[in-house]
Amino acid sequence: MVGPVAEQLRKNAMALKAEAQKAVAADGSSDENIRLFVEEFTGDSCKKDGSRNVGNLSHEGQDKVSDKGV
C-alpha cells in the first residue's frame, strides 16, 4: 500500500506494537494480571520484588478479580 492511508496504518501498527511490548514487559499490565491470576488460585502472594508470602489470607487485591458468574 502507498499513500496517506498506508502511512497512517503503519503509524497505528507501530503504536500498537509499542503498547503491546510495554504490556508484556516486567511490571507491565500482563505481568500484573498473570500474577493476580496465580495468586487467586494458589493463595500464594508473589511480591514485585520476587519475595513470596505463602498462604496470604488477607485477600489483598480481591476487589481486582471478580468471582461473579463462576
Short description:
The protein has two helices and two strands; from the N terminus they run H-H-E-E. By secondary structure, it is mainly α.
What does this entry look like structurally?
- The protein has 70 residues and is mainly alpha-helical.
- The chain has a domain at 4-48.
- Helices cover 50% and strands 6% of the residues.
- It has helices at 4-24, 29-42, and strands at 45-46, 52-53.
- It has a two-stranded antiparallel sheet.
- The model is unreliable at 55-59 (pLDDT under 50).
Bin the helical content.
40-55%
Are there runs of 5+ residues with pLDDT below 50, and where?
A: 55-59
> Helical element count?
2
Task: Tell me the series of helices and strands, N- to C-terminal.
Answer: HHEE
Basic shape: rod-shaped
Largest sheet: 2 strands, antiparallel
| Euclidean distance between termini CA atoms | 46 Å
Output the radius of gyration. 18 Å
% residues in beta strands: 5-15%
**What structural class results from the helix and strand content?**
mainly alpha
Tell how many strands the DSSP assignment holds. 2
Mean pLDDT across all residues, rounded? 78
Numbering strands along the chain, what is their spatial order in the largest sheet?
1-2
